[in-house]
Amino acid sequence: MIGRLLLVDALGMRFRELKLRKNPDCPVCGTHPTVTKLIDYKQFCGIGPEPKEEPVDGTPIKNGIPQMTPVELKQHLDNKDNLFVLDVREPFEYEIANIGATLIPLGELPNRAGELDKDREIVVHCKSGGRSQKAAEFLAKNGFKKVWNLAGGITGWANDVDPSVQKY
What is the per-residue pLDDT across 150-165, written as a single tens digit (0 to 9) for each? Predict the structure, then answer.
């Protein structure tokens, strides 16, 4: 296809071929190119380096949300600390494996956030930590002050705390 462009109309199953000529004044491939290397995209767009989030008391933070390990959550639960554990997975996932947390799927959270106590410490978990991170960020933006993400999710719980919890 050197020097040619193939246009495909998949709906009508038609093909059209165009012949292309090289532009001798092209700043990239012409006889006297002026663009010889890629630009620094982030610098060009005015994007600075992302600020590093420093751990508070050794607690890792991701996008402003403190991260709790499954072992730390187990210690809090064993100490009967006043934590509310929120599971944001789907109901079919909850049936496969759960640790007794309250289930509010991530997609329903915006409509059901009123069911949660803004003054209570909330630990959010999912399968591996991604959806719960989004949920924790949503809650933090909506006035919840004590929100944690369970790093590693229920998979981390099964690996580090209770191997009898089913992995999927």
Answer: 999 999 999 999 999 9
Please write the tens of the pLDDT for every residue from 126-137: 999 999 999 999
Written as six digits, the tokens of 22 are 């090289």
Q: Which of 26, 29, 45, 126 is catalytic?
A: 126
Residue 26's domain comprises 4-44
- Band of residue 1 on the pLDDT scale cut at 50, 70, 90: confident
Q: Is residue 11 part of a domain?
A: yes
Buried b or exposed e, range 2-31, using 16+ CB within 10 angstroms: eeeeeeeeeeeeeeeeeeeeeeeeeeeeee
Cβ proximity of 12 and 25 under 8 Å: no
- 37 and 81 belong to one structural domain: no
The reply to whether 38 and 81 lie within a common domain is no
Known catalytic residue: 45?
no
> Measuring CA to CA, which residue among 161, 160, 158 is closest to residue 93?
158
Look up residue 162 and give its DSSP letter: -
Tokens of 4: 């040619």
100-111 residue pLDDT tens: 999 999 999 999
